[in-house]
C-alpha cells in the first residue's frame, strides 16, 4: 500500500500542473511507502492512470472556468440594462418643468400635501354630518337635560286663524291629490265663528250663517293622513283628528279628520301573539276570538279609564295600555311619518293629536286572566273606602270628570277594584247592601269601545287618588291629570323632548306658508 501526494490540490494548481506536463516541465512527484523515505519518480516512470487523472482534472477546470465566464457575462448584461433604465428615468425627469418651490413646500413643511388633503376632507365630513344630524335628528332620541318646552313646539293649526278662501283651496287641493270621492269628504253646514279676542280678524266669516261650511275627511291609510296634515299646516287650516261620536258638538271650526276608516287588522304573528293594526281596529274582539287579551298589562286605573272612554295622559295610546304596545306609526302635525318606540310614545301620549297622531300600532296580546274590575259610580267616597276595607284590595279612585259624552254627572266619582272572580261576588253583594251602582267587567273582555274618539274641550281637571292604607281611610292624591296642555305648568315629559319635534323642523323650512294672495 502506498499514498500518492500531490503538490497542489486546488483547481488552479491542477491546471498549472497539466500545463507544465504538456510543456515538458519536470514534475516532482514522490511515492511514499510505509517505513521508508519518499522516492522521486522520473517522467518515464509515470503510470497511465496518473495521466488519465490529470486529463480529467484539466477538463473539469476548463468547464468550470467556462461556466464562471458565462455567469459573469450574464450579470454584466443585467447591470447594463438596469443602468439604461435608470438613465432613461433621469432623462424623463430632466424634461419635466421644475416645480415652484415656496415657503410652504412639502420639503420644508413637516406635513405632506396628501395628509393635508385628508385632514381637510375629514373635517368637512364631520361638519356636514353634525349639521345633518341636528337638522334631521333620530326620532327616538330624547336625552336628559333638554330645555324644549310646550311653547317651543309647533302643533297643528288647531286654533290658528285662516280665511275662508284658504280653507276652500286646501279642501280642493286635498280632493285633487288624494282623488277623494263623495264618501271620503263631507261638506256640512257650518255656523259662523265669532271673532276670537286673541285675533284681529274673524275666522272665515260668512254673510249667511246657514251657508257657512265645514269639511270632514276620511283618509283610507296613514299615507293619506300624512298628506292631509301637511296641507292643513301649509294652508294654515285648523284641523282636528279623531272619530266623532254621538253628542259631539258641531260648533268646531276647520277640517275634521275622521279616522273611522282606519280599522283594519294588518298582520298577526301566531308565534309571538303580536297584532299589527290601524288605530280604529277592534283589537279586543280580534284578541277574544283567539283566547287572548290586549289589556292584561295595564293598571286598574288605565283599564277603567279606557272602559269609560277616557284617556290617562302618558298611560294609554288610543285607549290601549302603553305597556301592551311594542311600537307605533306616528304622523306629526306637519305630515312627517315615523315609527316610534314605546319610550317615544310615553312622551308623545300626553301631547294629544295636535302634535302627533298614532295611526298604526303593534300590540302584544296576552292569555286571558280571571281578574275582574268592579266599577262603582258614586258621590260618597266613604262607601268606596268601606268596600275596599271589606275585600282588602287596592282601590283606584277617579273624581270630578264631568265629561259630556260619559254617563258621569258633575261631582260624581268612580271607584275601581281589581279582584278575582270569587272576590267579585262578595263585593257585589256588599255594594247592593250599600245601595251603590256597580258594574263587573272581566279584564279579558275589556277594550276601548271607541279608541280614537275626539275628546271635547273641557276645563275640568281630574284627580287621580290611590289608597294604600284603607284601615286608616286615607287617600293619597297623586296629582292633576288634565289633558289640555294650556292648563297649569308644562308637562315634565315635554321638557325632556329634544329636537325630535324641533319647532323649526315640524314645518318644513323649504316650504313657505300659503297666503290668500298666493296663487294656488
TrEMBL record:
It is found in: Mitochondrion. One of its GO terms (cellular component) is mitochondrial large ribosomal subunit. SUPFAM superfamilies: FAD-binding/transporter-associated domain-like. One of its GO terms (molecular function) is FAD binding. Its main location: mitochondrion. The keyword Protein transport does not apply. Residues 207-368 form the FAD-binding PCMH-type domain. Keywords: Mitochondrion, Ribonucleoprotein, Ribosomal protein, Transit peptide. Belongs to the mitochondrion-specific ribosomal protein mL54 family. This is Large ribosomal subunit protein mL54.
